[in-house]
Amino acid sequence: MNTNRKFCSVSVHEHIYFLTKQTLGLSSCKDVLPIYVGDDKTDEDAFMFLTEGNRGYGILVTPAPKESSAYYSLRDPSEVCVCFITFIA
Fold first, then answer.
1. Which is it for the CA torsion 85, 61, 13, 19, positive or negative?
2. What is the 8-class DSSP label of residue 21?
3. Which domain holds residue 51?
4. In the chain, which residue ranges form alpha helices assigned H by DSSP?
5. 49 falls within a domain
6. Which SUPFAM superfamilies match (predicted)?
7. How many structural domains are present in the chain?
8. Whole-structure pTM over 0.70, yes or no?
9. Rounded CA gap, 69 and 59, in Å?
């Protein structure tokens, strides 16, 4: 087992920005809607980034209601599947 892990100091919201704007070249696209699904406090940075700039939607997956910057909340991963299937259909 390799225990020599290198941790990245880049925040989740910086990853979202880099992926959508630079890597995929979507900076000028008006019809792109980023959706970020997370399940704990470590995802709040991404939820805030998307919500504050009206850049997309965050979905918190949690069995109990929690305060969050996510735009939506779902109870479990199966609800995430139903949400995306409904969204795509």
1. negative
2. I
3. 15-88
4. 12-17, 44-52, 77-88
5. yes
6. HAD-like
7. 1
8. yes
9. 9
**Cα dihedral: 87, 70, 66, 89 (round 10):** 0
Res 4 pLDDT > 90: no
Residue pair 64/89 in contact by the 8 Å Cβ criterion: no
Residue with tokens 């979905």: 59
Classify residue 5: in a domain, yes or no: no
Question: How far is Cα 63 from Cα 49, in angstroms, rounded to an integer?
Answer: 23
28 vs 21: CA distance, rounded Å = 8
Domain-located, residue 46: yes
Look over the chain and give the mean of its residue pLDDT values, rounded to a whole number.
84
Do residues 57 and 33 lie in contact, with contact meaning Cβ atoms separated by under 8 Å? yes
9 within domain boundaries: no
Q: What pLDDT does residue 57 have?
A: 93
